Amino acid sequence: MKALIYQGPETLVYADAADPVPAGGEELIAIESVGVCGSDMHAYLGHDDRRPAPLILGHEVAGRTVTDGRRVTINPLVTCGQCDYCIRGRDNLCPSRQIISMPPREGGFAEHVALPARNLVDLPDTITSDQAALAEPIACGWHAVRLACAPDRQGKTALVIGGGAIGVGAALCLAAQGFDTVRLSEPNTVRRRYLERSGGFAAFHPDDLPAGEMYDIVVDAVGIEPTRAQSSAWVAPGGTIVHIGLGSAAGGLDVRRMTLQEITFIGTYTYTAQDFRDTAQAMFDGRLGALDWIEMRPLSDGARAFADIRAGLVPAPKIILKP
After folding, report:
1. Does the structure show a pLDDT above 70 at 112?
2. Which CATH superfamily is domain 2-134+291-322 in?
3. Is 323 within 8 Å of 299 (Cβ atoms)?
């Protein structure tokens, strides 16, 4: 099969790769759409030791089963199903979890991928494969919002830092769960104007957020020192910071203010299998909008897509590559 293979920092090659061989209980998926994630970008830049070259990246996938042609979106997180975390419905914390695009599992920037049958969600005719590939990034936001909206953490105002697909997904999930005010902070002018025009989001440059306004929930979908500092400053007393982004490892949190104002900090990783299914159903029901904030490009053009994202030239929150 053809695949887009990560060969080292800022080097992607479109070349032949070995066909995946499904293990017992797995299905072979013919990929139709695969999204470029921020974690793919981290690996591309050489910032992710968990994704060593050479490797096929990509984990936001939709396509068809080879055996019977069913249209599916896939949960790329493979868990054991037997440990205490899996039994308690916190399978995203499974000690033996694996995800495609990270060894030992190759990713979805290819013509085919193999995954357990339980990781597949059938698609209705009303959803395209390009839209269905958004289930994975939106599920990250769904999981984060679910944790933030526990009964003792209720609120009505929210700020999302970062206008990429993770941030946009979180904003959609917040709105779907009844938040009166959902603002989006995005410094890239091209991206911000796209979101205002195409998505109807209340998108602001970080310097232009309403003066003095604070938020019950702040979602950091970037995860670098400056955005953690912004989260610490903008969260209301008694509020919650939800940290999704993995941009850098340390710095930025105002621990003194968090302590004095009883601010809760929640780290979130991916989603549970139930979160993924719930996200997909919300998409199918139209509760998460038109899902049209995407740009499609051929997989063979993937290296250029990564370079354009790196240069800040892509207005859409998500590029979908087409094998």
Report:
1. yes
2. Medium-chain alcohol dehydrogenases, catalytic domain (3.90.180.10)
3. yes
pTM (2 decimals)?
Answer: 0.93
SS3 for 141?
helix
Q: Do domains 2-134+291-322 and 138-267 have the same CATH topology?
A: no
**Cβ atoms < 10 Å from Cβ of 132:** 26
Sequence-separated (6 or more) residues with CB below 8 Å from residue 113:
20, 28, 29, 31, 61, 63, 74, 100, 106, 107
5-57 residue pLDDT tens: 999 999 999 999 999 999 999 999 999 999 999 999 999 999 999 999 999 99
The two counts, helices (H) then strands (E), for the chain are 10, 18
Q: Taking the CB of residue 148, how many other CB atoms lie within 10 A of it?
A: 26
- Write the pLDDT tens digit of every residue in 248-265: 888 899 999 999 999 999
Q: Which residues pair with 78 in a beta bridge?
A: 98
Question: With contact defined as beta carbons under 8 Å apart, do 105 and 75 qualify?
Answer: no
Instruction: State the fold for domain 138-267.
Output: Rossmann fold (3.40.50)
Decide: helix, strand or coil at residue 159: strand
Burial 237-269 (b: 16+ CB within 10 A, else e): eebbbbbbbbbbeeebbbeeebeeeebbbbebe
Ordered by start, the domain boundaries in the chain are 2-134+291-322, 138-267
- 140-156 pLDDT, tens digit per residue, is 999 999 998 866 555 68
Tokens describing residue 49: 């030791």
